[in-house]
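Protein Record: Sequence and Backbone Structure Tokens
======================================================

Structure line: whole-number tokens from a learned vocabulary of local backbone shapes, matched to residues.

Purpose: to set a sequence beside its fold so the mapping can be learned.

___
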Amino acid sequence: MIPKPPFPGDFSPERELALFRQLQPRLNELWNALSAQEEQPYTSVVVPSMTLDQRELEKLEGSSFYEERLLFLLIRLRNPQARMVYVTSQPVHPLILDYYFQLLAGIPASHARSRLTLLCAQDASARPLTEKILERPRLIQRIRYGIGDPTRAFLTVFNSTPLERRLAVLLGIPLNGVDPDLQYLGTKSGSRKIFREAGVPLPEGFEDLRSEFDVVQALEALREKRPGIRKAVIKLEKSFSGEGNALFHFPEENGRPALSDALRRMAFSVPTETSAAYLEKIRAMGGIVEEFLEGEETRSPSCQLRIDPHGGVVLISTHDQLLGGLTTQVYLGCRFPAEEGYRRQIQEAGRRVGEALAARGVVSRFGVDFLVRRSPGAEPWEIFALEINLRVGGTTHPFLALQFLTGGELDPDSGLFHSPSGTAKYYRSTDNLKSEAYRGLTPEDLLEITTINHLHYSQGTETGVLFHMMGAISQYGKIGLTVIGNERGQVEAIYENTIAVLDRETTYGRGPVRPPERTGREPGESPARREHRDRARRGGSIATRSWSRGSGAIRADSSSARVHLAATRAAR
């Protein structure tokens, strides 16, 4: 095969931008056609590239396998006339594809598979997938062959940058995502400005900081505005999942020298970060400083919405986020839906943020992270908007999984999701179920374990487990999963049982996994359980301000979990 023009270097920046502007109206036309009649022919080109700062991307273990999370978009193949081109950095194991296809209700797996073109860059480096594609003219040509009619196609990405814009132009199809020129609105500084425009409360703080001097000056001003403040959060502009956050403790002494000295003692979300490297990233990327919000009862929900090509703001979902890491700032997972006590408040605040973004011309999925707090027993919750994610987020794929498996829909008023049977659905999801004991398992091993132990989703009961990122398990001992149930307690019971099964099945042929830094094993405790406990003691567990007072670890009460598990087994 000989690649055909255009090639990446064929356009000047001005010409590329002009061509992009010409392509984007096609998205409106296709949106109108698909809204009027769902089963129309179109091609979705999925490039799940995490086009982020490479230094930040390298912090994410097994980052290329995160591209598998959007395999839930295979739901689009329920339309018997739809086609999909899905591109990854590394090959997707055939059994993983079989796993998803057999769960695709309502369409023969063979028919759906025939309409999928799966392509691969064969490049495992920690670089954005889009960058790898742009280096490979023949791969671009294969994507074009998979598209067929470019007037009935669009490009779906994890996040939009000038690289994704260039790829859209080379393929001759519109980008289903935010215009890269508007990406500033999704930075930490841009988010704060949009919150003010929308009239949504936010923490006291300062944005557009570009140097250590700016950070110290902002900390000094924050102390003046909040006398007695103990902690502040410093955030990199374009970091993700909370891994670019640093926790700053105010010194007892006043004055800039004391603040500057305290910067050398910041607490970071990842153990490899240093003060010098972090301040260099502030200079290169920019950042913000804001007060660390404290309270007797605090939680960390989020709201996901979509702005359609006509400027309409549509609610997608709400979640309670599970946070962890060394500073309890890193996103580890979520529960759906957010608690009823503040669900409607964050839905309304999210809608106002969406209207402000739509007025700026944004067409995209987006999410808004919040912190809510109250005194025990007090009503209502006090809400604060923290940041906007103008991209596919960590809560996108579990909700796609729920749609993928059930075919249900969200009630935008209550924020509850109902299956076609009318049953309200709940789930818990994580990308970070990890244990040294899981290393060496292949996708074949995992699927055998899940089949023998009935760890699968049942269409009959509309409950069960769906795994993702299965390609990462052998090398990194890391797996993602979404547990779906008909009530929260049932979800927690299934989640706990899943971990117990994986712990039991990974003890064969190996001794206890006990790295030197871990504490001793408690009686009857498995390797993965011990790892969860040790992270909790270090501040790095699945801990959250959702579902606990203060900063307690998130675990279902074991006795309650056993009761629910027994009930679930009895129901079978």
Notes: The chain has three domains: 8-177, 204-291, 297-571. Residues 515-524, 531-572 have pLDDT under 50 and may be disordered. DSSP finds 19 helices and 21 strands in the chain. The radius of gyration is 24 Å.
